[in-house]
Amino acid sequence: MTPPPPSGGWKPPAPAPAPVATDSTPPPVAVGPVPALDRYKAAARKTLVHAAEMRRLDALPADRQRAEIRELISKLFESDPPPVPPAQYERVGRELLDDMLGYGPLEPLLTDPGITDILVNGPGEVYVERGGVLELTEVRFRDDEHVRQVIDRIVSRVGRRVDESSPMVDARLPDGSRVNAIVPPLSLRGPAISIRRFSGGARTLDDLTRLGMLTPEIAAVLQAAVRARLNVVVSGGTGSGKTTLLNALSRFIPATERIVTIEDSAELKLQQRHVLPLEARPPNLEGKGAVTVRDLVRNALRMRPDRIVVGECRGAEALDMLQAMNTGHDGSLTTLHANGPRDALGRLETMVLMAGYDLPVRVIRQQIASAVDLIVHTGRLSGGCRRVTAVTELIGMEGDTISLQDLFAYEQHGVGARGKVTGAFRATGVRPAFAERLAAAGAPLPPDLFAERVLARDA
To answer: Which of 152, 197, 363, 396 lies 20 to 30 angstroms, CA to CA, from 113?
Structure first.
């Protein structure tokens, strides 16, 4: 039954005059939702929560929950229609449904496959990244409390919390998308949410090759390295594709092996059957009960793993990870933030020192040189392009310095007319010292694969 149009000839109020921008004030954002509709949705939500008996509803499957809320919304519109034309009732109903069971105004953005990042800078400003470019959206929240409701819904589903005593939190969405939230008093513009979305399907090396992140030659070397149980570190900056590449590499771990994954917030999507994911736990309200990534790495050594995959190495767990690599757990994979292969070694040194042991730098470097076989560095370049900018082998120590040699590199030549980076992948002509290990493991590579040449240029 189609509800009647609202009576009284409702008209939206005139928008308030735009503020004058000064050097000390942020630029004005677009006018938010119509106040009358905003008030209606806030009152409707209270009515629906009361009528739905949320505790009973939480026990139902997701499809049943949505069906019951839709029925309640239809009845509400019949008795109290929203202050919009009837043609917009469906949109208002969908927004109420998203507000009740989903992530409110963020739901349309989370279903858009072209969006890679969602950035909420308070209730009145939401940006997205599309095709490597940030753009301001028309999405708005009612107020700070509305943003907090969405944050609470996200973090509560993974057993975490955010409040004044714990104003920062890392969490994840059911699809594996990474979420960071920060609230006042640390955030001065109101509650803020940063969502790094993962694509609907697991990326393979073939997918990444088609996207131009690497070449078939580089993909062949990385595939062989994983199968031959080399210890691989994927380094790079924020948003450079480290976790995506690690997921792709993990697909070449044999299905017969037992894999233990360790993460601060679970993001990895391994395709093998015998995978045991572990996730760190923050402290409770009394500041107790925390379980760190380092604790999980230590525990994993007692779980008879064939492979240990650490989603991101960022602290004292680096020492335990290196010890694992040096004590028979070959084929380990991890990621870390760094500006280049040499910088990745410096970061590893720093993280080992964070373990609290007064180890000489030379001893730490010997541990790193003995444990790590390959560093794959990824970069996020102009226009949002992601590239494997270096594939670097560790070949031992020369004095107090770890020796590195690049097998493949990406050279940036400039920026095209559309702001996209231009450059070329090239092979350096260096044959890796681990070539014999690849052959012994049944993953030999032809010698001419490493011949010095340009492998591919950006279109």
So the answer is: 152
Based on the domain organization, do 214 and 119 belong to the same domain? no
Two structure tokens written together for 413: 């030549």
d(CA 14, CA 390): 56
> Same structural domain for residues 247 and 299?
yes
- Residues 221 and 148 occupy one common structural domain: no
Please spell the DSSP secondary structure of 336-391, one letter per residue: EE-SSHHHHHHHHHHHHHTTS----HHHHHHHHHHH--EEEEEEE-GGG-EEEEEE
Together in a domain, 167 and 189: yes
Q: Which residues contact 182 (CB under 8 A, 6 or more apart)?
A: 167, 168, 169, 191, 192
Q: Tell me which residue range forms the domain holding 91.
A: 30-101
Handedness of CA 38, 43, 45, 48 (dihedral sign): negative
Q: Is the overall model pTM greater than 0.85, yes or no?
A: no
Place of tokens 């007064």: 358
Q: Is residue 18 part of a domain?
A: no
Are residues 128 and 86 both part of a single domain? no
Nearest to 247 by CA among 237, 263, 256: 263
How far apart (Å, rounded) are the C-alpha atoms in residues 402 and 19? 58
SS3 of the chain: helix, strand, coil, percent, to 5: 35, 25, 40
Q: What is the CATH number of the domain that holds 259?
A: 3.40.50.300
SS3 130: strand
> For residues 407 and 427, is the Cβ–Cβ distance under 8 A?
yes
The 10s digit of each residue's pLDDT in 19-30 is 444 444 344 444
Count of the separate structural domains present in the chain: 3
CATH number for the domain that contains residue 171: 3.30.450.370
pLDDT at residue 1, rounded to an integer: 46
Name the helix (H) or strand (E) containing 72.
Answer: helix 62-79
pLDDT along the chain (459 residues), means of 10: 45 45 42 65 79 68 79 85 84 85 90 91 93 88 91 88 87 87 93 84 83 94 96 93 92 93 86 91 81 93 93 91 88 94 95 90 94 96 88 94 96 82 93 93 92 89
Write out the two tokens for 457.
Answer: 């240029």
